[in-house]
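Renewal narrative, Specific Aim 1. Our central claim is that a sequence can be written position by position from structural information alone. The example that follows is taken directly from our test logs and has not been curated for this report. It begins with the structure tokens describing the chain, in the order in which they were read.
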């Protein structure tokens, strides 16, 4: 697992989107799951929405009040629940 955030900083947006779409399709046809990590604030909301369109689902994570929270923001083939779940290990 690695972040794709640096791609947005070093390459033109059109190339990054094509590359990510290629990786996602390749993973689908190979029968594997792929995880793409994008750090908050690295690209515009419009760019992020374009990338989300390619994905089957979008998971979000954040730290808040010393807790690690997560949620499924979107699920292409199911219903995502928008509430945050505490994933902090005690």
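The sequence written for that structure reads:
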């Amino acid at each position: 697992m690695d972040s794709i955030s640096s791609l947005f900083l070093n390459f033109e947006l059109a190339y990054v989107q094509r590359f990510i779409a290629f990786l996602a399709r390749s993973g689908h046809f190979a029968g594997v799951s792929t995880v793409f990590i994008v750090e908050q604030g690295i690209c515009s909301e419009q760019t992020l929405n374009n990338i989300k369109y390619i994905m089957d689902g979008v998971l979000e994570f954040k730290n808040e009040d010393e807790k690690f929270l997560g949620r499924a923001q979107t699920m292409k083939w199911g219903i995502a629940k928008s509430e945050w779940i505490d994933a902090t290990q005690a």
